[in-house]
Amino acid sequence: MKQSPVVRVAAGVLCLTAALIVSVAWMPSRAAESLVEQAFADYAAGDIRAISRIIPANYFDGVGRPALRREVDTAVSRWTRDRRQIQAVFLLDLARFGLVDLREPAPFPLDPGSDPVAVEVIAKARVFVTGRPDAPGRNPREDAFEIAWHKTAIALLGGMQRPDLLEKVGVAPLRRRMAASPPARGDARLIDPWIELAGAIQQEQSTIVDPRMLASAGPAAVRRFDEAARFGESRSEALVRKSWLCVRLGRYAEALAALDALGAPGDVADEAVRYWSRLSRGRSLAGLGRDDEAARRYEEALAIFPGAQTPLAALTAIEVRRGNVDAAYRWAAQGRAAALGRVDPWLQYGAGDYRHFQRRLDRLREAGR
Amino acid sequence: MTRRRALVILVVVLAWTEAAARQQVFRARVDAVVVDVSVTERNRPIRGLTARDFELTDNGVPQRIADVGSDSLPLDVTLIVDMSGRGVVQPSLVAGVNNIRKSLRPADRASIITFTGTVREWTPLADAASIPRFPMPAFPHEAGSPNGPTACYDAIALSIVTPPTSGRRQLAIVFSADRDTTSFLDARAVLDIAKRSDSAVFVVRAPFDLEPTEAPREGATRVAITVDPLAIQPRFFRDLAEVTGGRVEEVKAFTMMRNDSQGFAFQVRMGAPLGEAFVRALEDFRSSYVLRYMPEGVASNGWHDISVRVANGGRFEVRARSGYVR
Question: ipTM of the predicted structure?
Answer without folding.
Answer: 0.82
